[in-house]
Amino acid sequence: MFGVKIPRDAEEALKFDKENGNTKWQDAMNLEVRSLFDYNTFKDIGKGTPTPEGYQLIRVHIIFAVKHDGRHKARAVAGGHLTQTPLESVYSGVVSIRGLRLVIFLAELNGYEPYGAGVGNAYIEALTFEKVCFVADAGFGDLEGHTLITYKALYGLKSSGKRLAEKLADTMRDLGFEISKADN
User: Fold this and answer.
1) Is the predicted pLDDT of residue 170 greater than 80, yes or no?
2) Rounded distance between C-alpha atoms, residue 36 and residue 8, angstroms
3) CB within 8 A of 108, min separation 6: which ones?
4) pLDDT for 139
5) Tens-digit pLDDT profile for residues 141-164
6) What one-character-per-residue DSSP string does 53-81 give?
7) CA 119, CA 128: separation in Å to the nearest integer?
């Protein structure tokens, strides 16, 4: 990816760092794990702890990428395919091209300049209703082998997209915005 060899797992990432004489992949993993704990995404219930009653044991692994500017990126992704299918709908719509064109048209018509933005660590802004836990791998550093209960919506969980959409909608309503009658 952009001329950089991408590791398949945390162990290979550490091997690549050693071969390259740097810590780019380790730093990316540390940043991701630190962010997850800063957002209280997990609760550590100890090393070798069995799966708590009512929780599903899943796999969470680190995936890797290189951004167009050369930054090394690590992202924790849940094995949501291992979870039971929720009884409620997990559908989360996305903006239509017609809706986007309408917003740009209205901005132009009213002399506004449209802006776009991204939400860093977006999914972990929302809570998950899925009761899942996992055993941390080498990507989680000193927590390797610890059982972690997941409280926040992780990439890969079936309900994460819907939970994030609900969180964003609630936040926009709290700021005084209303749903458009033309295109909700």
Assistant:
1) yes
2) 21
3) none
4) 77
5) 788 899 999 998 888 888 888 888
6) TT-EEE-EEEEEEE-TTS-EEEEEEE-GG
7) 18
